[in-house]
Amino acid sequence: MKEYKIAIGLSTVLCLIAFFIRDRFLMFFTTEIIGESPLFKDSWRLPGQVLPTLIFIFSFGILPFLYLSVKNYCKVSSVRNQRLSLLIISTSGLILCSVRVVYLKFKVAQIRDLVRRAEFTSDGDIPSVRFQDMHLESYLLVGLLVGWLLSIIIFRKSTNPKL
To answer: For residues 133 and 48, what is the distance between their CA atoms, to the nearest angstrom?
Structure first.
């Protein structure tokens, strides 16, 4: 019971941290994608950004519960395996989000190259990926869930050799 109270408290703290770092998260990855540094302030107030903000906050808040479910379901007792499960969960979330960034960066490069070769517009008028079409929060959440499943598969087999 004590573990659940700690998880709820940690989840609340992580949700608050996520709310305050979302603009920096978006600014960092948007700079990587388009090569320019946009200014984000209160991005959750932009039209259509309430749900992505909630997904981002939920992604951070669900981390303790994913870890706790792996720990309890697979009966992971060693500190090394507990840290490894947390590392697998968080790393897979970051990897999937990074894969999305690389894909979007490639897509922007393709658009710029196509327009430059066609010589329809100058550099300033080249279209780019829209902010609303990035969906980085969704990829982060899906990556965390994939890492959770991967941890369950790895540690379930290592704790129960009959499987």
So the answer is: 11
